[in-house]
Amino acid sequence: MPGATEEVKWEHLAYCIGGKIFAIQTLEPDSVALSFKCLPEAFAELTERPNIIQAPY
Question: What is the pTM for the complete model shown?
Answer without folding.
Answer: 0.64
